[in-house]
Amino acid sequence: MELQTLQNIASNERARQKSVRIYCCTSTGCRAAAALEIIETLEGAIHQRHLQDQVEVVGVGCMGFCGRGPLVQVDPDNLLYQEVVPDQAASIIAALQGGEAQPQRGNVHHPFFTRQMPVVREYSGKIDPERIEEYIAVGGYQSLYRTIYEMTPAQVVEEISRSGLRGRGGGGYPTGLKWATVAKMPGGQKYVICNGDEGDPGAFMDRSILESDPHLVLEGMAIAGYAVGANHGYIYVRAEYPLAIDRLQKGIQQAKRYGLLGSQIFDSPFDFKIDIRIGAGAFVCGEETALIHSIEGGRGNPVPRPPYPAERGLYQCPTLINNVETLANITAIIRNGAAWYAGIGTETSKGTKIFALTGKICNNGLIEVPMGITLREIVEEMGGGVPGGEVKAIQTGGPSGGCIPKTLLDTPVDYDSLRQVGSIMGSGGMVVMDQSTSMVEIAQFYMDFCREETCGKCVPCRTGTVQLYALLTKLLERQATPADLAQLEALCAMVRDTSLCGLGQTAPNPVLSTLKYFREEYEALLVEPQYHPHPPGAANQPVSALGSVPDSMLEGA
Amino acid sequence: MAATVVPTASPSQAAKPDLRFKRLDITMKRHQYRPDALIEVLHVAQEVFGFLEAEVLAYVAHGLKLPPSKVYGVATFYHLFSLKPLGVHSCVVCMGTACYVKGSSQILEGLQAELAIQSGETTADGQVSLTVARCLGACGIAPAVVLDGEVLGKLDPVAAIARVQALQQQAQS
Q1: What is the ipTM of this complex?
Q2: Fewer CB within 10 Å: C terminus or N terminus of chain B?
Q3: Domain end position, chosen among B53, B77, B101
Q4: What CATH number matches the domain at A18-113, 3.40.50.2300, 3.30.160.270, 3.40.30.10, 2.130.10.10?
Q5: Which residues face A237 on adjacent strands?
Q6: Least Cα separation, residue A38 to chain B (angstroms)
Q7: Residue A56, beta-bridge partner list
Q8: Using CA atoms, how far apart are residues A115 and B3, in angstroms rounded to an integer?
Q9: Do B120 and B164 lie in a common domain?
Q10: pTM of the model
């Protein structure tokens, strides 16, 4: 294919599109609320009114305002309808001819929408993710063409380095540096892996990107492959995301048919093929070495680094592993230039980040905001605050992150500021909690998660998380003494410092951060030591917490 | 895996050919019997057989030329693979943070009491399996429950129990 052909596809597609397009969200959340039925009703109403030539219904990806789904948007009028029910859908079509629309109107001028800065999500909710033509019509695959014909691999790496993009999976490692390391490795077989094992509970931006704009990630992977000299890529997706898997499969097939993936892309010598690997439910597989083992068909056990995957990864070959959102930023950087991207955000954190704003919050959903925006702006302005209450804390970073109290709401959201207050950016989950949430229970909830998800390879993580959980349970049962609290703290430090991989090293974070900011809640649960410190029967256990926990919990289930 | 039951003859030659093994054969062949396709093959095996019984694991080990210990190790490592038979209906309660904060643990407790089983178990009549998920990514409609693949959002314990009861009644009639 040549550039002209690509442009022809784009102009044909634009000519095909009807003047009025009605977007209906078909992502997981809205599907659960009868979005597919709404599409049928809308189409029926269009036929009934003989509007087929002017109006079309497009099933699109996530529009972001998931808490008020299902969402329907009318373009070009920019009308948003929320919480639409199938019975009311026909009136949306009637409204095009001057009738009255029954569904509730959404306010598109609310800060939830106006404060956003869509870079990755620019076309989410505006194109049909199952048709590659729609992606091409908005300039898709032109960045890939440009990199292949107008840039050398070294220039691409340089461009990404200058953009200041950092890994969006949580670590925040500079993406350009990672690419440069893999590119520098001697030739031969190399791989690109897209990490779509989005395991953090409360985060769903990767699912949303894959469901809404799969080609954005595929194109990003191909550009990465060209830059580092790889001709084979894998996307590792959670099995819990069937819709994302389905859309990726369709996307890969369509791209292959047009010669945008596969052999001799754009008639150049560059080959790049992409395979999907489906996870099987293991949080630890988000860790890169564990993920590699999983792709190789084994248990997802991490191994010590170095050697880093960039040196020796998949099948012992140099491997580039990037998160979905990181790769989704690539085409925009190539299209608009590194300087443009570096102009967004803060000194050390460039660009935008997608957050999943959930929990006790009025407007929940996905938001893409420039780095450096404060938590207060996100929660109070965009999120509309807590329904009928007050913010108590915000949890970021999932089981590896921490809870930020409301006194620190003015913290800017970037990699370094969040780390300073004892949490992390993580993959972008942001769960808002109000006064009804006990922080000790939240700490226990996350420890339960880590206890279940530890792979069992290294002792500090395998047994440490179980013991920490037991101590937290003892606290909540009001049986813990000040000595237990001291032990909890000591054990947290031990697990953090001695675990093999990120899962164990960060597992104590929710406990440590809640201890730091909400210590009084822990202390309120303490009891004075009994007169007999060793009651008969449960005596002399090496860790006293074991006494109050049923055996079934200790098996790690 | 206690006994390494490797079927001596391929099932297609057996007296009554089992189409389910045929599908496993096709999957393994498509992956050129590469050992690294193990997880892909196990996904198909679970889909076809409903769960991974010892015989199936042995058959996969044989086909991919892997030691049965490795196949067993992988099958037990991942949460999605089940070595026990599952119920006719599946009920998955999301216990992600967003759902948890919005009360999914009450839903789980309600369902456990209603079905008289713990999560990870199947009712005695083999009708409903109750499991928990770590996050379905449907946080916008928290708390969420998946019944037979259908995602239900913004539930409370009463509504969740009603939906499960409806399933059970369906099964009886």
Answers
A1: 0.88
A2: C
A3: B77
A4: 3.40.30.10
A5: A196, A278
A6: 16
A7: A21
A8: 62
A9: yes
A10: 0.91
